[in-house]
Every structure is written in structure tokens, then in C-alpha cells.
């Protein structure tokens, strides 16, 4: 009886280890396929930028991680419109961590576009920084503890402050609250 019990326990442990090994192998195969698809998407993005046709062949058939990698590659390549469309579709379709990552990356793309080399056009630059601020605020509503988004929002606010600028004329209320010293004041020298 004891020998049979020991063999049964050993067989159970061996089957559990084999199941874990098979599970790990399938996850490794899936990760390898995703990495190959991401590498292909990055090379496709470079080729697409050169040909000015950066539309994916079948966007619905690609894994969302591949679409995120494609959008990042397009953003780095300078195809901002196509990258923004991919980011927006990811944000809309995946409200989980992947969508928040896409939202953060989209905000970063707008911030780079508004504050970087594209800053020569002032109105477009302010508009892009405004878009970045909107994306960071959306992200902070979904994930208030995201310190990277807080930092980037602060940076965007520093680049394009939202406080109204002081006009040359004082406010009407300030004009009426002017105090004049008493001419017989003894505190003057």
C-alpha cells in the first residue's frame, strides 16, 4: 500500500511538472511569434514611410501588441497621422493596460510633435501640446497613480501654460481699490 501511494504521488508530481513545461513552452512560442510580428511591423513601418503608404494590410488580424509596436514605429518614423489612428483604435478597442499604454504613447507623440522640431509653427505647436495635455488628463482619470503621465502633463503645462496672461490694464476692481497714503503720515522720512 505504501509503495503504491508513493508511486501515485510521484506520478502526480511528474504530470504536474509536465503540464507546467507544456504551458511554458506554448507561452514561449506565442511570445516568439509576437516578437517576430513586431519585428516585421517595424520593418514594414520603415518601408511604408519610404513609400508614403503606411496602412497595415489587415489591422483586424494583427495582435494588439503588434499594432502598438507598429504605431510606435510609425511615430518614430514621422508618420504621425497613421500612428495616431492606430493609437486611437487601440485606446478605443482595449481599455485595459494596453489602451493606457497607447494613450500615454499618443500623448508623448503629440508632445514631441509640439515641442520638438515641429515647434517652428507656433499655432500648430500649441495645438499639439494641447492634444498631449488632453491625452495625459484622460490617462490620469483612468489611472491617477501614473507618475509618468503626471510628469509629462506638468512638462506640457510648462511648455504651454493655461493661465491667462495679465493684461496691461488692471482689473476694474483693482482700479477702485487703490489706496493713497495720508499726506500727514509721520512714517515718511
UniProtKB/TrEMBL annotation:
<dbReference type="InterPro" id="IPR011990">
    <property type="entry name" value="TPR-like_helical_dom_sf"/>
</dbReference>
<feature type="compositionally biased region" description="Basic and acidic residues">
    <location>
        <begin position="170"/>
        <end position="189"/>
    </location>
</feature>
<feature type="region of interest" description="Disordered">
    <location>
        <begin position="164"/>
        <end position="189"/>
    </location>
</feature>
<protein>
    <recommendedName>
        <fullName>MxaK protein</fullName>
    </recommendedName>
</protein>
Amino acid at each position: 500500500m505504501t509503495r503504491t501511494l508513493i508511486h501515485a504521488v510521484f506520478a502526480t508530481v511528474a504530470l504536474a511538472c509536465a503540464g507546467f513545461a507544456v504551458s511554458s513552452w506554448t507561452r514561449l512560442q506565442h511570445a516568439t511569434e509576437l516578437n517576430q510580428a513586431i519585428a516585421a511591423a517595424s520593418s514594414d513601418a520603415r518601408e511604408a514611410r519610404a513609400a508614403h503608404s503606411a496602412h497595415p494590410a489587415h489591422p483586424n488580424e494583427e495582435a494588439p501588441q503588434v499594432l502598438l509596436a507598429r504605431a510606435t514605429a510609425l511615430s518614430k518614423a514621422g508618420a504621425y497621422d497613421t500612428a495616431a489612428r492606430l493609437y486611437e483604435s487601440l485606446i478605443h478597442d482595449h481599455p485595459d493596460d494596453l489602451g493606457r499604454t497607447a494613450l500615454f504613447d499618443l500623448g508623448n507623440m503629440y508632445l514631441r510633435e509640439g515641442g520638438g522640431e515641429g515647434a517652428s509653427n507656433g499655432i500648430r505647436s500649441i495645438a499639439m501640446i494641447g492634444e498631449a495635455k488632453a491625452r495625459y488628463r484622460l490617462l490620469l482619470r483612468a489611472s491617477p497613480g501614473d507618475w509618468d503621465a503626471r510628469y509629462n502633463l506638468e512638462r506640457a503645462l510648462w511648455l504651454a501654460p493655461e493661465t491667462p496672461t495679465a493684461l496691461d490694464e488692471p482689473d476694474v476692481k483693482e482700479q477702485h481699490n487703490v489706496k493713497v497714503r495720508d499726506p500727514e503720515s509721520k512714517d515718511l522720512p
